[in-house]
Q: What sequence folds into this?
């Protein structure tokens, strides 16, 4: 027969590794102890964690016990578990991405012609972000590469298919994206006639 200190320690370990609520019956069998005694020890542990203001608490769930986090720490847990936002796309990158999305498959020269500026570095940056991919080669002179958007593009902007893209007249309603939940969030305007100061990737 184990003393209370040993059994409390064992109960803590079992709750930690078990994941699911630990049934009193199962704990009693492991410790070869009476179910009533085990429940009293678990309730005692529950009080101890609460009294010392621990970030972990013990919750009773339908005759079983499990570790949970202290409710007042929710704000800190959310910060820890929320992915850090990735750098937003530059104006140049958004221009190129929009052109590819609406004209795909499209060649670099076609993109350059629409923008009036070379787009190679921007395309490379979009490919590194897995928003754009090579879709084969054109049948035109020199058989240049064709570019199209990816499944990752759809995911980031909250679309299920290219058919859900806004009407071509609604470019001003296209939205920027971040990596927080894979959805478009902040409104921005895309001006295809504007000058790009830099070719950000």
A:
């Amino acid at each position: 027969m184990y003393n209370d200190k040993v059994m409390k320690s064992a109960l803590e370990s079992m709750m930690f590794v078990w994941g699911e609520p630990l049934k009193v019956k199962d704990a009693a069998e492991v410790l070869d102890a009476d179910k009533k005694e085990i429940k009293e020890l678990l309730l005692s542990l529950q009080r101890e964690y609460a009294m010392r203001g621990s970030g972990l608490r013990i919750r009773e769930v339908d005759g079983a016990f499990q570790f949970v986090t202290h409710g007042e720490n929710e704000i800190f847990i959310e910060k820890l578990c929320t992915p850090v936002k990735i750098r937003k796309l530059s104006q140049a990158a958004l221009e190129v991405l929009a052109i590819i999305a609406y004209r795909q498959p499209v060649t670099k020269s076609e993109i350059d012609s629409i923008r009036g500026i070379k787009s190679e570095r921007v395309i490379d940056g979009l490919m590194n972000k897995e928003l754009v991919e090579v879709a084969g080669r054109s049948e035109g002179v020199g058989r240049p590469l064709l570019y199209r958007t990816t499944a990752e593009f759809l995911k980031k902007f909250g679309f299920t298919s290219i058919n859900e893209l806004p009407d071509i007249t609604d470019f001003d309603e296209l939205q920027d994206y971040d990596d927080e939940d894979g959805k478009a969030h902040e409104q921005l305007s895309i001006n295809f006639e504007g000058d790009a100061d830099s070719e950000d990737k």
